[in-house]
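A quick aside before the break. I want you to see a complete sequence-to-structure record at least once, exactly as it would be stored in a machine-readable document. Don't worry about memorizing anything.
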Amino acid sequence: MLDDFLVRAALAGVGTAIAAGLLGCFVVWRRMAYFGDATAHAAVLGVALALGFGTSITLGVVIVALAMAVLIHGLSGQGAAIDTMLGVLSHGALALGLVAVTMIPGQRIDLDAYLFGDVLSVTRFDLAIIWGGSAVVAAVLWWHWSAMLTATLSSDLAYAAGINPRREQLVLTLLLAGVVAVAIKVVGALLITALLIIPAATARGFARTPERMALLSVGVGVLAALGGLRFALIFDTPVGPSVICMAAALFGLGTVGAKLRA
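That is the input. The structure line, written in tokens, reads:
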């Protein structure tokens, strides 16, 4: 069954949506969208370094994304200047990666596949990476759920409960880097943040508890992934952008539905 590239593409989309839907709730609650952009854009630099050193692209993306996550975490306590620094890191890493890729001799690179995703070319190894990464994200969030929620609500409340909010933020940032690594094949470096934010934002209007929001976010992400894949096959459009368009359409419908319920 896995020999069918459409089945592999669907499984890749679902696996990515699960991880992005769960983590996206914290990205929305903590307003970490810019953190996601910086980490995702650094993935292109990881691709360039992997090609330059002749190693696995997945490994290169993971290493650079984790390095960017640690750097972002170190800068997160620097006050208002963090927005400027994140902008410099995000676009600087993207530009450096794009330039570095073109300078690698003997390599013909399809940059669109890394910028906008190429889910139809997903291999069995890619599926193992995507579902393995999603399992890790789900397991860590399950283990740290209460601590992360408390730290998200209030740093003072977290300290009073014996929780280190900086540690929880570091865990979230590292998980964000992991999602970037597994999602680059599905929606690409430029659209990963949208897959994190839109399903969670859609679910927020219908959820009364954080747990329900997380489950609804996963559901919206899965529906967007499968719907976007179907749309792309029918109208011959790029899959990654189609997935995000489907997610945006679901957000629009959800917003209208929430207003009608009010």
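Two observations worth writing down. DSSP finds eleven helices and no strands in the chain. The mean pLDDT is 88. We'll return to this after the break.
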